[in-house]
Amino acid sequence: VCGGRGEGRLYAAGGTGESQALATVECYDPATRLWQPAPSMGSARSFAALGVLGGRLYIIGGHDGKSRTTSGEVFDPQQGLWSPVADISSTRSELAVGVLGDRLYAFGGMTFRQGGPRFATAEAWDPRTSKWTPVASMACRRSGLAMGVNEGKLYAVGGHDGYGRVASVEVYDPFMDRWQSAPSLPDPRCFLGVACVAGEGLFAVGGHNGDQRLKTVECLSESLQPA
Fold it and tell me: Which UniProt keywords apply (predicted)?
């Protein structure tokens, strides 16, 4: 399942049920503290990534239960409708999505079979042209990574490089179109969550280290700069 915030509400979209990928969507309203059903996506998908741009929710890639996909959809909360968007260039699941300015960025992921090649490549979606454009690739191939936004830059955190879980962190500067190394996590992990708290830093939450699911939380302080 992947999540994003739009119109002051939290959305959870897709994922895997007992035996199949899901197209269902649920919405959490902090005012009522309740989850409610929202309009379902056009396609079932798990291991996709979701980002919010211009008040709309974009869900990209993933696995439809039979194969990985290049497709994406956009949800307009005002109209309550999902619509297709242009396909990303490569089939990929377990990717990450982040939003900076007026663009949506998709990074990493994997294709083909379990244990198949991971991606270091990245693409940017421009809603004005409805096109994906390649941007600089990460130094490390990774799937199951998390993406965080802090001080106008995107942080790619953890993941799996095809050989094992990684602790490395990279930071992307959209103006320079360049990645740099940032301080690594103390412990390797994939399928984690990342969030930025203003004035505090970037938090990495949970995940899996190859042996067990994690409940630990780690913080990259805003005072730490890329190496």
Answer: Kelch repeat, Repeat
